[in-house]
Every structure is written in structure tokens, then in C-alpha cells.
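Lecture notes, unit on protein representations.

Consider one protein chain, 212 amino acids long.
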Amino acid sequence: MLTEALTHRSVLGEGAQRARRARLSNERLEFLGDRVLGLLMAEWLAERFPAEAEGALGRRLAHLVAAPALAAIARENGVADLLAVAEGESRAGVRKRDNVLADALEALLGALYLDAGLGPARDVVRRFWEGAIAAQPAPPKDAKTALQEWAQARGIGLPAYALASSSGPSHAPSFRVRVRAGEAQAEGEGSTRRGAEQDAAARLLEKLAQTA
């Protein structure tokens, strides 16, 4: 199960039959792990912030399970070094991509849930995400809303989002979206277009903060 969780679909080749590729790569475990993480994170946030309303908890949850947060945790715990990818994809730097690392981390949680149950999966989530939650004293603003407020405050109009590319099978798509605010722009990735837009907005805000 661990081997499957750490096997990128590229290892089996693009010519592999889709059903076989999904069965032997980490795609199915990522699908399961995404749901396991969502449940355990929602449970933890409700327990840790008992006075917060649903909207505030939802913003915390969205931030903590977004690809950038998952990728950072995956890097901290050496997931990139363990992930099996095709040689060509490795040279192309696929192990560095946030969405690939996020998927692998979710696949590991899915494998842990199947092998050991919800309790051990809960322990890992709380250990891996403790620093991220501690660094979030207040509910974060929705990234798209924050970027819109930034742009409006400078009188440069609303941010513009455009789909840059989409790939992957129908049950596990990957979207790349480009956002522009004035002269500044950034790209983000996600398993949904909305998620990719949020990721793009967050990345542009980070870039703007670095140049301020």
C-alpha cells in the first residue's frame, strides 16, 4: 500500500490503460486520502476553535488542505525524495510541483487509513499540521477576496483569471490558472478550477508581499 501511495502515474507510462494506471499509481489513494484529511481536519478545527462560526472554520480548513500547505508539509517530511516518478518526469522537476506533492501526501493518508484505521491517520494529521495551525492565530481571508481588496485599494480594477491549462484523467483532473492584477501576475494549480484560482491568488499575494 505504501509503494502504491508513492507511485506517480508517470511510472506506468502514458500509454498504460487508464484503469490499470489508476489502480497501480497513487491516484485512487489520493482520492481517498483527500476525504480522510478533510474529515480529520474539520474535526480538529471544530475541537480547537469551539467559539468560531462555520465561515471562519471553513476558511481555516480551505487554507490548511490547499495544495501549497500540503506541498510544504510534504517537503518538510521528505515525501519528494520517496516519490517514484518516470525518469523523464524526474528530469522535468515533477517532484517539485505542489500538486504532485500534495497528491502524494493525501495518498499516504489514504494508505494509512486503509492499513491502520482512522486513529493513526488522525495522529499523523495532528503531528504534521500542528505547526501550520499554530501559525494561523486568526482565520485567514479567502485569497481571492484578499487579492480583490488589494487591487481595489490601488484603483487598478478587479483581478482577471484565465485558464492556462488542464490535464489528467476525468476523475483526477489538474488545472492551472493565471491571474493578473495590474502589471503583476502569477499561476496556481488545483484539482478544480476554483481551487486553482485560489492558489493563483495566494501565490500572487505572496509575490506582492515580497516586493512591497
